[in-house]
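Q: I'm writing a short methods note and want an example of a predicted protein-small molecule complex. Could you take the sequence and the SMILES for adenosine-5'-triphosphate and return the bound structure as tokens? Please keep the output block clean; save any remarks for afterwards.
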Amino acid sequence: MYVLEAYNLKKTYRQNNQIIEAVKNVSLAIHPKEVLAFLGPNGAGKTTTIKMIAGLIHPDRGSVKIAGSDPHRNSAALQNLGAVLEGNRNLYWRLTPEENLEYFGVLKGLTRQQARRSGMELLERFGLMHKRLTPVQQLSRGMQQKVAFAVALIHQPQLLLLDEPTLGLDVEATENVKVLVREIVANGCAILLTTHQLTIAEELSDRIAIIQKGEISTQLPTQQLIRKFSGSSYKIETETAIDARRIEVLETIGAKVVESNIIYVEHPEFLYKVLEILNPIPLHRIEKAEADLTQIFLKLIREGNNINA
Ligand SMILES: Nc1ncnc2c1ncn2[C@@H]1O[C@H](COP(=O)(O)OP(=O)(O)OP(=O)(O)O)[C@@H](O)[C@H]1O
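A: Understood, no commentary inside the block.
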């Protein structure tokens, strides 16, 4: 069972007698409680795809199903969708969080009473009760973002679209958004996340789909993607500098000393030999040298590779 099924989406724009193939062929599926990070360089087709999923623009070809129904044929499908698109523009700035929640709740088909009750629950859950009567424009950027999340969840959708949810937020507000995303998922909602902040994608996503020039080039579980690019080398950090004699011996067995106290062991079978050579220099840590998502993303984009499960 999927919360989102998008098949073979295509969208072409016409501008000044030019045809722009924004999305050539995109298929995405998301399970309940899954976070899919949808990544790609500028202009790759992310926003166009998300707008087709949200029912905001019609695809030229392909289909979208949210919890089994197509928002382009049946607008009731949007009852299962919440969205925080392009920052926090889905709010009325002069209204308070409470009023925003009630207004958007009613717009989503709730009764006033249901909207009020659901709004209060969300304000409580997101730690915003004390600000419920303050106009949104007077709240901090991080709090405004929390209100935007609450508004998107007022009708308890099964799928939440998050477009750059941490853009322009400071470190603490960014941490709060991460906590919020985890909490929303734990409560049963699936998330389609786009972001250019790859550490956020790495931390929050279960799966990653990369779009390039309108097509999905990579789609894999996040950890699998990271493992695939990480190889099997180890990084050893010592407490004190390694002396020149040891460095010479280490290099004869292929270990790379990159700073006076950091060594990479490319061949894991030499790990214990390296440790013997280092003995008795105190160790600070030993870890598998994992690639991070930023390195992987840049490599995939530069080489134009296709990697799928
Ligand atoms: N309304 C439009 N009219 C014409 N061309 C458009 C329109 N919207 C997007 N495009 C073009 O379609 C392509 C894909 O754009 P899209 O905004 O979907 O990419 P994106 O991956 O979201 O990029 P970014 O990361 O920069 O937001 C780009 O070449 C863009 O210039």
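A: Remarks, as requested: The chain has two domains: 4-227, 232-288. Residues 13, 15, 20, 22, 40, 42-48 surround adenosine-5'-triphosphate (CB under 6 Å).
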